Amino acid sequence: MTIDTAVLDWRDLCAIDDIPVQGSRRAIINGREIGIFRTSSSEIYAIDNACPHKQGPLTEGIVHDCSVTCPLHNWVFDLKTGVAQGQDEGSVTTHPIQIRDDRVYIQLKG
Amino acid sequence: MKPRLVVIGNGMAPGRALETLFETAPDAYEVIIFNAEPRVNYNRIMLSPVLSGESTFDDIIIHGDDWYEQNNITLHRGARVTKIDREARTVTSAAGITEAYDKLIIATGSNPFIIPCPGHKLEGVLAYRDLDDVDKMIEFSNKENSSAVVIGGGLLGLEAAAGLKMQGMDVTVLHLMPTLMERQLDPSAGYLLEKELSSRGINIITKANTKEIVGEDRVEGVLLDDGTLLKADMVVMAVGIRPSIELAKDAGLDVGRGILVSSTMQTSDPDIYSVGECVEFEGNVYGLVAPLYEQARILGLELAGETGNSFAHSETSTKLKVTGVDLFSAGDFAEGENREEIVFRDASRGIYKRLVLEEDRLIGAVLYGETADGAWFFQKIKEGEVVSPKERENLIFGQNFAGAEPLDPTAAVAALPDDAEICGCNGVSKGKIVSAIEKEGLKDLAGVRSCTKASASCGTCTGLVESLLACTLGDEFGGTKETVCGCTDLGPGDVRRLIVAKELKSIPAVMQELGWKTSNGCAKCRPALNYYLVATWPGEYVDDQQSRFINERVHANIQKDGTYSVVPRAWGGLTNSKELRAIADVVDKFEIPTVKYTGGQRIDLLGVKKDDLPAVWKDLNDAGMVSGHAYAKGLRTVKTCVGTDWCRFGTQDSTGLGVKLERMMWGSWSPAKVKLAVSGCPRNCAESTCKDIGVICVDSGYELHFGGAAGMHIQGTQVLCKVETEEEALEYCGALLQAYREQGWYLERIYKWADRVGYDTVRAMIVDDAEGRKAFYERFLYSQKFAQDDPWEERASKGVDAHEFSPLTLEPAE
User: Which value does ipTM take for this structure?
Assistant: First the structure.
């Protein structure tokens, strides 16, 4: 069996249960602030923690369905794609997440 | 001589693989099985009915002794293999039995995960994996008044709990997550399951963190993090399983979470195969029977020499095997972009169904209470065919309605016969409602309710009544009323009334019983429901932090740059040198950039970094200050003037009354923010006449005001009444605040509430009805018992919500 070499880039961030259900954690990775989100069905997503509108910290917003509402001016972002919903236009960078043995692994993009 | 096939493990997967092998190529191998358990192959999934006493071991045997004989299998019972020698091509058991192999199957299954908390090795701590565990459990349950704690509210744990309950034990289930079986069920279905199991007398505690299993030599109880101690003679750990890979790993085979296999179940050694729960395939490990049987079939064919078959990952479905609980889930039912959901709820029959579609294909289903269509939905998920718009209208109603014409709600109501019952609570028929609308000239829901009582009790037929109005009045019908949000057809008033009437005590309970159209609400309804529940069930409802806006979650006000402002409470606007020094020290220590007086006579520290909040609060706490709740939909400030203490015009001790009011009201949650002021004379220096509640002191007593506003909307207060004593002032103000807390809609300030219900109505409730006032006041004081904990202290010193304030950190890799 060969092992995917990309595995080397995955970084062990935390346990799933370190992130509250329907909640989030801020993560500082290589000095960059990333928001780690957990939905009610325990899907984990990672996005840059700054709203493109006025740089609101998205981790402080309410998580509902697969989205988060920015605490400053209520922009809503899809956690999977990072794209703003409804009338608002913009997006945040998303980062791939993998779950292994109930631990959260992250790969940092760009 | 026939090649020798050695099998390590005698579970369901290798059993099924051998069946396939014998059917396809009988007599191809000489088969030798090592079984760590001292018995034949039995159906492990059916252990639950054995535990509950509904089946016996004989009922669940898959392969009896004769099967092994007929197929000339050598079965080593009670023989645990401890070594695989790949060079010598032999396996050896603990007792020293060695067998040579040509082909080897590793089917070691999985091990239960035991939480390594203190006491986990005490006698009486059991897993739930095999018949030995079940025998021990039944032995415990035979003792009189015995009680069990099951740790883990997943599939296995709940089956164990239900079985033990049927054996007559007192059973408590501890579950770490907020809802049961969160891997298989969404919160709504989890709520229904919890309700059903609770009604059978199983005590369920969610968000429960086990601290310790207590006992001398054997289990005596379980201690939770929050200090709860549960009596227990037995603890069943059912928190999960881990593939059993040690043997394969020691033999040098490639392993990840499980033993890595190819699509023909081959490990990294071409003569060694693996099957069952110990296997990892393309990153997946399996614990449910369907994919394991599929693996077994592929392996059987492979060993029989039939090439060209391969195992592929596919969706799985789950059913809970507890008699009388109908529950089914399949596929992927997480929310996501491009995903849509269809939700059906029937509150009176306890039914919940949710389908998840992605790009017009069904990808997931959760069914509770009625699961007959489970297999049909599962088939649709596996086929992955596009669901047409027409098909979709009736999809949730299942197979029987597939292809039927969709009905729009108004047409459906119009088609009902006149004697069809619309309102079950009050027994009102369609004919009665229509004739009332026509004869009495009714134009809206309120009219129908007061004339016929239809939809006036539980409110779940509101949608039907509105459809009747629409089809009777046509364009004349003004449309439906304001709803809480798009997730429901009910307005805030109905929701509040129904929470009380139906004794709904959790957010999933409200959503299920009131037919929410989404599975877990939105950013608009969740904070509202959370408030209604906090206000309605003091001491019972546990605040849902994830349904609160950030300011209320971290007890500080978020600013435009993501920093926070911190406002310590200054009772009645008073402070002193000690507090001021402590504030000054905090400002220096944490380099807080801006310090400002607020309009409510408080000091605001602006620009505090989130990570610093607990430390800032700790220093303020140490100087005797508590949270000023400047962020809360709750009591903010009581502004005062100096009154008789200093002022030459003062008529009463306005500062003292302000402090008393604030001491009484702090910490309470309300629909929107509440600001008070107490002025010492009619000059009104504290500006009481634009506050939510204002007091103006006069020579003969206290003039109480309410319903002022000085924000986007400006309006002066109206007089509630005049009272003579401070005690009366406190009672009337407390009662008024409680009436608003019980009746206000979320985000509705006191003036809007009073505008809606009428100022005279408020006066009648609080002033004219002395008994009612006292009852309001008592309810307020009761609810304050649970509200007056300083949230800063809980977070600064007691570690509450620590995850909020410390980011996870990863440094650049070397």
Answer: 0.77
